[in-house]
Write a structure and sequence with these properties.
Blueprint: H1 16-21, E1 26-31, E2 33-34, E3 46-47, H2 53-67, H3 73-76, E4 81-89, H4 96-108, E5 112-123, H5 132-139, E6 143-149, H6 153-158, H7 165-177, E7 182-189, H8 199-208, E8 213-218, H9 226-232, H10 241-257, E9 261-264, E10 267-269, H11 276-283, E11 288-290, E12 295-297, E13 301-305, H12 309-317, E14 323-328, H13 331-343, E15 349-350, H14 355-365, E16 369-372, E17 375-378, H15 380-383, H16 386-397
Parallel strand pairs: 1-4, 1-11, 2-3, 4-5, 5-6, 6-7, 7-8
Antiparallel strand pairs: 8-10, 9-10, 12-13, 13-14, 15-17, 16-17
């Protein structure tokens, strides 16, 4: 597969016949709109009081027609089936119930959803209002990832979140009343010491809502964010490493006792409730990426769109593919990704001859890993050292 456009290539870097064959079973759609930027956020977002829903939907339709050219829009859906569809952001729920349903309809013009497809939308609690969820259900959305982040109102205000703690339980109740039972909650741990939030209480409050899935993220300070500027001025300090570790391990203990499987560094699920879409990334399976800053992978080449919504929309308005860049994975890239992605999941990584005795044995002795059936699996202590351990193993395999 070519990695740069040539005389016979289209603007995606794929020849027309290659574009015709690229029909991954999974698709990610980036919806960049937010009511405001959270204090820690460095994602590609577009803060809008009035969300340009119709404009976004037209651009999404155009991107699909450019990326999957060579067949008529009406005839393609029978040729392309999606097992998972994920609307991420930004805040997809800023499109409203009707807008999100219309976005699913745009996708359905080009692809059909498998009968058991997992269709996820990231939502903020304040957007889940009576009547909204019914539109999502009717559109085929069957899984919600709710950005709770905390159940402490002081912490939420510090994060620049729009909702208060009570809105999370209201959103969960409304979703369940309309039939969406597959609910994931996001929480952030390791907040600065100045925020006197009880992490135990946050986890226990989340458990009381009986979600099927939890995603827990340690707070990191990124320079181009309000939090980064606060830190640069000395107004706030990151949580110390020992508290980061203690809160991560505490969550592992509390959620494990409640019957959750810690199946990936940041992810906990009840039985049969792993995120099927996110698991695609960790297994290196091909996926499509649509929307500003979205990435896609065809098994050999990774591509990404321009990040800014204005640029993405402007290109599509002119009929130009919004490709921002691409890279062909080298053998070294593949080795590094195989190691890193394998070690971040509970399924682990298949060991190669000599690795267990010569490299991994000290990790097992330290309580960072275990080996069973020829597979290396990191413990929660090991996941706290994931980058270092993955780097060591990658260097070993690249000798």
């Amino acid at each position: 597969m070519t990695t740069t456009p040539g005389p016979t290539a289209d603007v995606t870097g794929m020849r027309a016949d290659e574009a015709e064959r690229f029909r991954p079973r999974h698709a990610y759609v980036h919806v960049p709109f937010c009511a405001r930027r959270c204090s820690y956020c460095d994602f590609s977002i577009a803060v809008r009081r009035d969300v340009p829903v119709a404009e976004y939907l037209r651009a999404l339709d155009t991107e699909l027609s450019l990326r999957y050219s060579g067949a008529s829009r009406d005839g393609m859906a029978d040729e392309w089936t999606l097992d998972t569809l994920y609307f991420g952001g930004g805040t997809p729920s800023r499109l409203g119930g009707g807008g999100l349903a219309a976005a699913v309809d745009v996708i359905r013009r080009y692809a059909q959803l498998a009968p058991d497809a997992e269709v996820t939308a990231e939502v903020n609690p304040e957007d889940i209002l009576p009547g909204v969820v019914r539109k999502l259900v009717d559109a085929g959305i069957n899984r919600l990832s709710i950005g709770a982040q905390s159940f402490d109102d002081q912490a939420l205000a510090w994060m620049h979140r729009v909702h208060d703690a009570g809105k999370v339980s209201e959103a969960v109740s409304l979703a369940r009343a309309e039939g969406i039972l597959n609910i994931s909650l996001d929480l952030i741990f390791a907040l600065p010491t100045v925020i006197r939030r009880s992490w135990d209480r946050d986890v226990e409050t989340a458990l009381a809502l009986e979600p099927q899935h939890l995603s827990l993220y340690g707070l990191t300070v990124e320079p181009a964010t309000p939090l980064g500027r606060w830190a640069a001025r000395g107004e706030v300090e990151e949580a110390p490493d020992d508290r980061y570790e203690s809160e991560f391990l505490r969550a592992n203990a509390l959620l494990g006792a409640a019957g959750f499987e810690h199946y990936e560094v940041s992810s906990f699920a009840r039985a049969n409730a792993r995120s099927r879409h996110n698991s695609v990334y960790w297994k290196g399976v091909p996926y499509a990426g649509l929307g500003p800053s979205a990435h896609e992978f065809d098994g050999q080449v990774r591509r990404w769109n321009v990040a800014a919504y204005v640029s993405w929309n402007s290109r599509l308005r002119e009929g130009i593919d919004p490709l921002g860049g691409q890279e062909l994975l080298t053998e070294a890239n593949r080795t590094a990704e195989t190691v890193y992605l394998g070690l971040r999941t509970a399924d682990g990584l298949a060991l190669e001859p000599g690795e267990e005795a010569d490299l991994v044995a000290p990790w097992v002795a330290a309580g960072w890993a275990e080996v069973a059936g020829g597979r290396l699996r990191l413990s929660p202590l090991g996941w706290l050292r994931l980058d270092a351990l993955a780097t060591s193993l990658t260097a070993w395999r690249s000798r």
